[in-house]
Amino acid sequence: MTEMTHSGIIIVGLGPGGIQDLTLEARRVLLEAAEGEQIVYFRTIIHPTVEPLKQDIPKLRIESFDRLYDESEDWSMLYQQIATEICDRAQEQSILYAVPGHPLIGETSVQLVLQQARARGIATRIVSGLSFIEPVCNMLSLDPFEVGAQIVDATNLATLRPDELAGHVIPTVPLMVVQVYNRRLATEVKLALGEFYPDEWIVKLVRAAGVGEDEAVLEMPLYELDRNNFANHLSTLYVPPVGTLAALRAPETLRSITERLRREPDGCPWDRQQTHETLKRYVIEETYEVVEALEEQNMDKLAEELGDLLLQVYLHAEVARQSDEFTIGDVYEQINAKLIRRHPHVFGDAEVENAGQVVQNWDAIKQQERASAGVDIQQESILDRVPQATPALMVAQEYQKRVAKSGFEFTSLPDVYAKIKEEMAEIEAATTLEEQREEIGDLLFITAKLARFFKIDAEEALRLANRKFQQRFQSMEAIAHEEERLLTSYSTAEWEVLWARAKTSV
After folding, report:
1. 63 phi, psi to nearest 5 deg
2. What digits encode the pLDDT tens for the residues 31-66?
3. In CATH, what is the architecture of 134-246?
């Protein structure tokens, strides 16, 4: 444990608004500071308690961090800068830091002060205050515990990327966004919430809760949040929840939908009939449709197809949940734990120099995991655990990659060409259907080996060849349509001309 110094930080809660809400302990601490001519650092003096405090305690010496709100262009660094300045001063002398409400409720700067103070060995003490939550909930007639309300700091919300918001905002439960202190921040909050809520969603801006006649609840559509100057340091935004089926960008909605589809007796008859076995074909189909979208470089289609593939994950998880096999939480746990475990260079102390070392570490960790699970690795074939449902060309190249590591590999490209010629000769010599099938299989296998020599994915190469053939043949169909002829009317020579024309256009 870090040794504490004689310096320290007392963090005082000023309450939500009126000076009548200031606790006796908070007033005593502030009075002692004034009598000792000690400066009290206020996060902001834009708070209705400040002016009455000056009258009540005339000797009170105040400095604030309001300048940082105007100077800061990086929301994520604003409170960090405040915390750093507080702790820097506290290493020289005892510091009083005053914040609105309760220091531990909706006060990001306080959390950062506590973190830095612990790291620097600075003692801290909290002087509680009435939080903003009570008067805000009073104005909204809301019990935050009953409805499970979320409370987020506006500055923190503004720093999140769109892909991070899903872990911080659940649109199907009530949301309170605190410290929406100016119009610029209101814009960032609006843009963040637009990830989940409709632009026309009616929200409530609660101003000056607990400050008598200044209290107000302003209703407006979300898109108007920054089209006025209503936001200030005493503003809390209340966002009512959307219905489950309306939260289309929330991960939880997909889980809810799949559960509803399989629910007895009012779900979907088709979905209720599905099993792990019947869903297998759809997993395969959706996987290939994702690959197709990737090859077409169609990002809109890719987003749609990834959604279809994700649906298969959730459907299998729901089938398993209903059969008491596992839940979607187990799926998350397995993949999250695996990624953390197999990336010690990211989440641990291991070091790597390149991607090749990453692969080596990955394979070594996999071996350790299997040994820990009781698998006799010494008795295991290097060709085990290649799913046979995988496309045959992919299996061929995976086998070839594995055996090459043991030294079973052609030494040169001419050797591969020679083997291809040998397989061609064996096809010509084959006389039965069984022999022809076997020799053609051998030719395909060695062709996959040739692709490996060129570092080409054989499956991808064949897919591209299929796509190229499709486009060229469809081009010939279009030409035939323009010529008002049936495809079956073309002679072999005419087909060759058509093919040559199609090659030049595609």
Report:
1. -130, 145
2. 999 999 999 999 999 888 899 999 999 999 999 998
3. 2-Layer Sandwich (3.30)
Spatial CB neighbours of 45, under 8 Å, sequence gap ≥ 6:
62, 64, 66
How far apart (Å, rounded) are the C-alpha atoms in residues 316 and 330?
A: 12
| Band (179; pLDDT cuts 50, 70, 90) | confident
**Mean pLDDT along residues 17-23:** 86
Q: Which residue has the tokens 């054989």?
A: 458
**Per-residue tokens: 216:** 């107000």
Domain 392-456 CATH (choose: 2.60.120.560, 1.10.760.10, 3.30.450.20, 1.10.287.1080)? 1.10.287.1080
Pairing, β 202-207 against β 216-221:
antiparallel
Residue 342: the pLDDT is 92
What one-character DSSP code corresponds to residue 350? Answer: -
Q: Decide if 179 contacts 233 (C-beta within 8 A).
A: yes
Architecture of domain 8-130: 3-Layer(aba) Sandwich (3.40)
CA distance 252 to 170: 8
Gap between the Cα atoms of 33 and 10, Å rounded:
11
The pTM score is 0.68
Judge whether residue 300 has pLDDT over 70. yes
Cβ–Cβ under 8 Å, residues 102 and 130: yes
